[in-house]
Amino acid sequence: MSAEPRLVEVRKNVLKQNDVVARALRERFRETGVLVVSLVSSPGSGKTAFLEKTLTVLHCRYKVAALVGDLATENDATRLARSQAPVKQIITGTVCHLEAAMVQNALADWDLGQLDFLFIENVGNLVCPSSYDLGEDLRFVLLSVTEGEDKPLKYPTIFNSADVAVITKSDLASAVEFDEAAARRNIQAVRPGMEILKLSAKTGEGMDEYLEFLERKRTRARDAAAAHK
Amino acid sequence: MHELSIAMSIVEMAEEESARHGGAKVQVVHLRLGKLSGVMKEALLSSYEMACEATPLEGSQLLIEEIPVEVFCPRCEVARLVTSIQWFACPECGAPTADVVHGKELEVFALEIAE
User: Do A2 and B38 count as a contact with CB atoms less than 8 A apart?
Assistant: First the structure.
């Protein structure tokens, strides 16, 4: 045995397995024309209320479904089932984020061609989910007005990885003296050009603009699927 | 804390690669870690030791090269390092840009294996 070790080049992405599954999922979503939106945020920012409202409103006109990630409970799925849309819980156990394979397993027996929208609610966590591509078309990062305007600066990685920022609980903005201009400035600092929606799932403020936004994106996904065929 | 599962993937990858080279003992794993990878260097280093326990990589070292965030400036038409990950803009001309060229790396770059 010589004293000098040999250097072997590897150059492999550690999350290669996740990325391969995510790519396969994205291809499957694209072929079927379903618009897939994932939601990330810190715990308590209103993801489930936002999703419940979304599913309830969309359910009248579209075929919608949701996957929800949670560490331990099925509470969210039970709550979301009130919207009448199909909802499946992914219990992650000790894992603090969703991975592409969990989404793939949960969707194994689903006919995605029947769906217009699929929402994937990640585990409430602003750190870990940023590293894992789930094959989604759009990643929404939620920021509630009660959390403070500087959240984007504290968690730049997840804000940078998202496509759309959603400011939630807008009905509480004045009560907590939320500085909206500062929040928008901070979001744009860590992700220039990001679309920002502001709404309240409770009062319905901003929901119309949000639904129009979703419909626009869905039309685009449908057109892309048609062109693909 | 997802660093432990990342560390386990690194160990697994290093084991596979060393097997392809005749099962030689891995002494050092070189990792390229982007500042925007979502993985903390310190947490990964402590998780790595745990992940190596009772594997052929026990006693090996993880050497992390941190990769700064580089963006493409649309105005200067050149890639530049950002001065802060709280401000995605060209440090020269101030143009905002979300076009990340480097900084998301999470890559096993090389292994040092005993002959």
Answer: no
The chain-wide mean pLDDT, for chain A, equals 93
pTM of the complete model: 0.92
Q: Shortest Cα distance from B48 to chain A (angstroms)? A: 13
Count CB atoms within 10 A of the CB of residue A22. Answer: 21
pLDDT in tens, chain A (229 residues): 456 889 999 999 999 999 999 999 999 999 999 999 999 999 999 999 999 999 999 999 999 999 999 877 788 888 888 888 899 999 888 788 999 999 999 999 999 999 999 999 999 899 989 999 999 999 999 999 999 899 999 999 999 999 999 999 999 999 999 999 999 999 999 999 999 999 999 999 999 999 999 999 999 888 888 887 7
Residue A94 belongs to domain with CATH number: 3.40.50.300
Q: Per DSSP, which regions of B41-96 are E strands?
A: 61-67, 70-73, 78-81
Fold for domain B3-67+102-113? Answer: hypothetical protein PF0899 fold (3.30.2320)
For residue A90, give how far its alpha carbon lies from the nearest alpha carbon of chain B (Å). Answer: 17
Does residue A10 sit at the B interface (CB-CB below 8 Å)? yes
Considering the domain boundaries, does residue A86 fall inside one? yes
From chain A residues 190-219, the ones with a CB under 8 A of any chain B CB are: 190-194
* Burial call B46-73: b when 16+ CB within 10 Å, e when fewer: ebbeebbeeebbeebebebeebebbbbb
Domain span at residue A224?
34-228
The average pLDDT across B83-89 equals 95
Distance of CA B39 to the CA centre of its chain: 8
- Is residue A3 included in any domain, yes or no? no
Whether residue B59 lies within 8 A of chain A, CB to CB, comes out as no
